[in-house]
Every structure is written in structure tokens, then in C-alpha cells.
Design a protein that fits this description.
With 183 residues, this protein is of the alpha+beta class. 34% of the residues lie in helices and 31% in strands.
Length: 183
């Protein structure tokens, strides 16, 4: 990925539409839902992260700074086509020389689980990354026991390529190569 393309992507992303979802830049109005998701024990377990233990107002302060100064992680809101904010997806760990990037996904609104919204969001994100960049490989990590997520990722064309352990969590590493594009 050319550096200029990366920074254009990170800073000027316009909404990208799939069959069921629209990926768009996050906004201040998303903070309450994101706080709810990041304090939910089940969602945090699936994300291999501890639930937040600080107040919503402390979270909001950090969230606003993150919106203004995103750094090299770019997080997009996942909305249904009728505008309901149901989750987030991120692009991070850009490796310009190797031509790969890592992605993450969370559908925070549980009533949308198992209904194709996560797979559509991931396909849409992967398609967009391949269209706007020179990236040849998209990677993701999923907990080794999270078979529902693994099925979603396989549905999107990802294949297992390794494993890793971090902070006592065991992950399967999965990849999607440019020539395979999202299923």
C-alpha cells in the first residue's frame, strides 16, 4: 500500500456500502453504543479484552481524542442500510513492505448476530481495502474456541494460516489473499 493511499484511507474514508451494511467514519453520536459494547462482559470475552472499568464520561473524553487523532488504526462504524449502528470494524498493523494489513470486527448489537451482517461487513471492508490499495494480504485473529466467528471468516474466504498466544488467549490467525478477494 502506498503511504499516501494509507493516509488518504485513514483520514478521508467515505461510506462504503455492502448488501446489508454501510461502513462509515465513526462520529461522536456512536460513543454511547461503543461504551455499552466495551463494558459488556460477553462481547469483551469474544474480543479478548477486559471490560472497561471507567465511567462513560472518561470513555467519551478518550473517544473524542481518538476521533480527532486516529493514528494508524482506522475504525469504521458498521450501520445497517436503514442507519442503525450495530458494530465496528478496524484496519491496523499496516506493513508497507510485506503488503499486508490486519482487520478486526465486532457486531455489538447481539440481535444482529448470525444474520449475515458480520460477514457482509467483513467482505465489504476487504473489498474496499483491496480496491484502494496495493495490499496483497489481509490478516485477522480469532479466538481458537470462537467457532461462530471462524465460520463467518471462512464464509468470507479467509483460511487459517497459523496460531498465536497473547496474554493467555489462544488465537487462530486467518488470511485472505488479494487473488481470492472476498467470497
Amino acid at each position: 500500500m502506498r503511504r499516501s493511499t494509507v493516509f488518504e484511507f485513514l483520514n478521508n474514508c467515505s461510506p462504503v456500502t455492502g448488501e446489508k451494511v454501510r461502513l462509515r467514519p465513526r462520529k461522536t453520536g456512536d460513543a454511547a453504543a461503543e461504551y455499552k459494547w466495551r463494558t459488556d462482559e460477553e462481547l469483551c470475552l469474544l474480543d479478548a479484552a477486559p471490560p472497561l472499568e471507567f465511567t462513560y464520561f472518561d470513555f467519551l473524553d478518550r473517544y473524542l481524542v481518538e476521533l480527532e487523532y486516529p493514528g494508524l488504526t482506522h475504525t469504521l462504524a458498521i450501520d445497517t442500510l436503514d442507519g442503525r449502528h450495530i458494530g465496528n470494524c478496524s484496519v491496523f498493523n499496516f506493513d508497507f513492505l510485506a503488503g499486508h494489513v490486519e482487520v478486526g470486527l465486532m457486531i455489538g448489537e447481539k440481535e444482529y448476530w448470525g444474520r449475515g451482517y458480520g460477514s457482509d461487513a467483513l467482505k465489504t471492508l476487504a473489498r474496499y481495502v483491496f480496491e484502494i490499495s496495493d495490499i496483497r494480504l489481509i490478516l485477522l485473529r480469532t479466538l481458537d474456541w470462537n467457532t461462530r466467528a471462524q465460520a463467518c471468516f471462512i464464509k468470507c474466504g479467509f483460511t487459517a494460516c497459523g496460531s498465536m498466544t497473547k496474554d493467555n488467549y489462544h488465537f487462530i490467525v486467518m488470511e485472505l489473499k488479494r487473488n481470492l478477494k472476498p467470497a
